[in-house]
Design goal:
The protein is of the alpha/beta class. The chain contains 9 helices and 15 strands. The structure holds ribose-5-phosphate.
Length: about 300
């Protein structure tokens, strides 16, 4: 069996350390240099030759810097004769750029997938892509995990006798339904239209939320525009209480403080992105055990999907 070698970029060192601890392997050092002309250089400071190499980098702010760092780490591993290079990308930010919905716009999700492969990435391990078709943007194998298991385990500790799961949009309704099934709950969905990065409209909620304890489930919370719009509709329709859950807690523009100051009972996310602030209403669930288990299974040639189906 080839030796495993795990390197982490600078986007989320805590998560890399946690994954390595679960895998019981050392975290290999990476030297990052910035030249006077602002170019980056990466040196992997541990032998990669014939190793099964994993480079961990979440594409979070500063996304472009972190992306180039990841590309350089993959290139360095390939150039150092790694047997296989796997990119572990807990949050693939460019997944939001997944369709041509305006004239002459770029489709970053596809371009970045190609860049990763060009850089030497042989396979990708990622979590809750913004839309399922992004999986198909990659010309190499992708193990696409979700965090429904972790989120469901958290909510099983709550009184769910009057609860309903609500997806803010129809696009995420399938995942919300899978989450609701895990909890034995009904599901509802918002009819959402996004006008711009900062403006969404939810015209109606399809399903019954009156008098219910709502669990809102989304893939990510960025500025919180979606959740705030949904909260308005839920209040209008007489929801009794609202908890909010997502995989990627990005919380741009102070969204966490704003959301915590609202009447939501709790906010739950994972640590796929590093969090700069804490709040008593916020619970952060770790995806490190799931990512470590997936890495271990990939390394050993075992099924990954069977692990995350239940
Ligand atoms: C959009 O389709 C996604 O599922 C999320 O609802 C969205 O990315 C969240 O962004 P924001 O919090 O800025 O509305």
């Amino acid at each position: 069996m080839r030796e495993i070698a795990v390197f982490g970029g600078s986007s989320h060192p805590e998560l890399t350390a946690e994954i390595c601890a679960h895998l019981q392997v050392p975290q290999r050092p990476v030297l990052l240099k910035r030249f006077a002309n602002d170019c980056l250089e990466v040196q992997l400071q541990s032998n990669c030759r014939e190793r099964d190499v994993y480079v961990i980098q979440s594409l979070v702010r500063p996304v472009q810097e972190n992306l180039v760092e990841l590309l350089l780490m993959a290139d360095a591993a390939r150039g150092a004769s790694a047997a296989r290079v796997s990119a572990v990308i807990p949050h693939y930010a460019y997944a939001r750029s997944d369709k041509k919905d305006a004239p002459r716009i770029s489709i970053g999700g596809r371009l970045v997938a190609d860049l990763l492969v060009t850089a030497g990435v042989d396979r990708v391990l990622t979590l809750n892509l913004h839309s399922p078709q992004v999986h198909g943007f990659f010309s190499v194998p992708v193990d696409h995990l979700h965090a429904l298991r972790e989120l469901a385990a958290h909510f099983r500790q709550r009184d769910l006798s009057n609860a309903v799961v609500v997806s803010p949009d129809l696009g995420y309704a399938k995942s919300a339904a899978a989450f609701a099934r895990r909890l034995g709950l009904p599901v509802a969905a918002g009819a959402k239209e996004r006008m711009s990065d900062t403006e969404v409209r939810i015209a109606a909620i399809i399903g019954d939320v009156a008098g219910r304890d709502v669990i809102v489930l989304d893939d990510e919370i960025s500025r919180g525009t979606t959740v705030f719009e949904l909260l308005d509709r839920l209040r209008e329709q007489g929801a009794r209480s609202v908890a909010v859950a997502c995989t990627h807690g990005l919380f741009a523009d102070n969204a966490l403080d704003k959301l915590a100051a609202s009447d939501v009972t709790e906010i739950v996310c994972t640590n796929s992105a590093p969090l700069e602030t804490e709040h008593s209403k916020l619970t952060v669930l770790s995806v490190a055990p799931a990512l470590a288990e997936a890495i271990s299974r990939i390394h050993n040639g075992e099924s990954v999907s069977s692990l995350f189906d239940h």
